[in-house]
Design a protein that fits this description.
The strands form two sheets. Strands 1, 2, 3, 4, 5, 6, 7 and 8 form an eight-stranded mixed beta sheet that branches. The protein has a five-stranded mixed barrel with strand order 9-11-12-14-13. It starts with 5 loop residues before the first helix and ends in a 16-residue tail after the last strand. The protein has six helices and 16 strands. A hairpin with a 2-residue loop joins strand 3 and strand 4. The longest helix is centred in the C-terminal third of the chain and has 11 residues. The protein has 306 residues and is mainly beta. This is RADX protein. One of its GO terms (molecular function) is single-stranded DNA binding. It holds the Pfam family RADX.
Length: 306
């Protein structure tokens, strides 16, 4: 059928009501957002953002309401979609923006694709990877993997992807979203090593929309975290309190979930796998820890400083 591109959409969307089908690849995926309120009677008040791209550039796509439970888990990073009967809306200005792996990619930020059950009822098809043709010109998923030895030189809030062998995982903890609110964030601390430094990655992992992965992080698993943000305490000793925290678009993968993921082709991931083959499992097991209370960043040594 006659296809359109994201670039053409941006130029012609105001003058059209119906749009030609789109063929895009998912490059980023946000966590699922629940926006239900007692006074609003919505059956399935969910929303999820995706960043999708074709040969012309990248645009946001929003999945609404009852389409979320139906499609959210099937739309993975790297999935190719054929979209028909979608709506185009002006972009929501306050949403978070993931950092693209390819810095050259053009971003269409003024509009977004809206997928709904009605007005119009969107038709979504997933194209299996083996049927994707090179002449479609869809971009590959690119990553920004760093090693632990590179972390100390990175600025605050820098976006990166990491892979490591888990040596510590803490219990799940809760923090209030707002001071007197009823809602909580669920998170846990983890340490992962990659052989490039004596220090581990210190990871603050908030529960994403992947409970099956979040609950099963344990020592000796290979952990991949994408779209992590660098947090450094710029006040005192910057190197002592550097850690990584999840963002709205972070994805987490553990052993058993890596097969077929686009990052398996990345050079730094391959280097890490080579390093793990040189390690003795028994030696690493002795150094692993699980559970317990993990105060971080650590309080000062004496009470006056505190």
């Amino acid at each position: 059928s006659k296809l359109t591109s994201l670039g053409q959409l941006e130029m012609t969307w105001r003058s059209r009501v119906h749009f030609h089908p789109l063929l895009v690849r998912v490059l980023h995926k946000s966590r699922l957002r629940y926006y239900g309120k007692p006074e609003k009677k919505l059956d399935v008040p969910y929303q999820a953002y995706f960043e999708v791209a074709d040969g012309s550039g990248m645009m946001s796509m929003v999945l609404w309401n009852s389409l979320c439970p139906e499609w959210y888990n099937s739309m993975k990073v790297g999935t190719v979609l054929l979209l028909e009967q979608y709506a185009i809306k002006t972009s929501y200005p306050f949403k978070t923006q993931p950092t693209p792996g390819d810095s050259q990619m053009k971003r269409f930020a003024t509009i977004e694709i809206s997928l709904n059950v009605r007005d119009p009822p969107t038709k979504i098809s997933i194209i299996p990877e083996e049927m994707v043709k090179p002449e479609w010109g869809l971009p590959e998923v690119k990553y920004r993997f760093i090693t632990r030895s590179e972390l100390d030189d990175l600025p605050n809030n820098h976006s990166c992807d990491v892979i490591g062998l888990v040596t510590f995982v803490g219990r799940a903890e809760r923090a209030r979203k707002r001071e007197h609110g009823e809602d909580f964030w669920l998170y846990r601390w983890a340490h992962a090593i990659d052989g490039t430094s004596d220090q581990p990655f210190i990871l603050e992992l908030f529960a994403t929309s992947q409970p099956d992965v979040f609950e099963h992080i344990h020592p000796m698993t290979y952990l991949v975290c994408t779209q992590m943000r660098v947090v450094r305490d710029l006040t005192e000793n910057p190197s002592s309190t550097i850690y990584l925290t999840t963002s709205n678009e972070s994805q987490i993968f553990i052993t058993g979930w890596h097969k077929g993921q686009p990052y398996t082709k990345d050079t730094k991931v391959k280097n890490f796998i080579q390093w793990t083959k040189t390690q003795s499992e028994a030696d690493q097991m002795k150094k692993t820890v699980i559970g317990g209370y993990y105060p971080f960043p650590r309080p000062p040594n004496n009470f006056l400083k505190y």
